[in-house]
Design goal:
25% of the residues lie in helices and 17% in strands. Helix 3 crosses helix 4. The two termini are 19 Å apart.
């Protein structure tokens, strides 16, 4: 199984894009600072050096522990292969950090206040450099032989490398639900919160943002077997089961 992705500036490929992935391939939905839920899933999954974890972005905002969540994701790189995807909330936070002050009000309104509270500061200058570098290292998408992963959506008739970043990170499935991709691969997405707490499956795509920061849960999904785990924001493990996906 091959892995391919572009770096943040979408200009060149990482050296590892031809590496074969062994072990499990587990996508994780929008965490949004819900560290207790993430820790519960990691305890259940027990990732090791053979596993590949693909968090689908929106690591920050809304939940109560963005700072701890980023620390945990950074530490995960010592336990397994980690391929974090950049979400729209992560992008907006980076914009503010880089000096785009006109985005500050928007960011604070959409969860930035909770993020700053987790750092115990009112200034983005106090955010640790390692957290900024982690977010800057996140990729816009990644793919295996049978799946591809983006934060939000995709364009059916465009290769991922040529897909507009607004679509990849911001477009809601409530606005447009794409059909099968030209690659014929299954899409695994986040971003569009499923407030029922249930995985959305529409034949050509899965959405595993299950509204953890609200009344739903955080979902981890092993794409090769359909095994999945769910935990709520208090850290209670709610589900560990298998999801039936029918391949065309």
């Amino acid at each position: 199984m091959f892995f391919g992705f572009d770096v943040f500036d979408n200009k060149k490929l990482f050296e590892s894009d031809k590496e074969k992935m062994a072990g499990r391939i587990i996508a994780i939905g929008d965490i949004h600072g819900c560290l207790a839920a993430l820790d519960t899933l990691l305890d259940a999954i027990q990732p090791d050096k053979s596993d590949s974890l693909i968090p689908l972005g929106d690591f920050v905002d809304r939940g109560n522990n963005t700072a701890g969540t980023l620390d945990r994701l950074i530490d995960l790189r010592e336990r397994c292969f980690l391929f974090p995807i950049l979400g729209n909330h992560d992008e907006l936070m980076l914009d503010v950090i880089s000096g785009q002050t006109w985005n500050l009000g928007k960011w604070l309104m959409y969860g930035g206040r909770q993020t700053m509270r987790s750092y115990g500061t009112d200034s983005v200058a106090d955010i640790p450099k390692k957290h900024i570098e982690f977010l800057q290292s996140c990729v816009p998408y990644c793919e295996t032989e049978r799946h591809f992963f983006t934060h939000a959506s995709y364009q059916e008739n465009k290769p991922l490398a040529k897909t507009d970043s607004t679509v990849l990170r911001w477009e809601s499935l409530k606005i447009r639900t794409p059909g099968p991709h030209i690659s014929r691969k299954m899409a695994v997405l986040g971003h569009t919160a499923q407030k029922s707490g249930e995985i959305l499956y529409q034949g050509n795509l899965l959405c595993i943002d299950t509204y953890c920061y609200g009344t739903g849960c955080l979902t981890a999904f092993e794409v090769q077997t359909g095994e999945y785990w769910q935990a709520d924001k208090t850290g209670q493990l709610l589900n560990h089961s298998h999801f039936r996906v029918q391949w065309e």
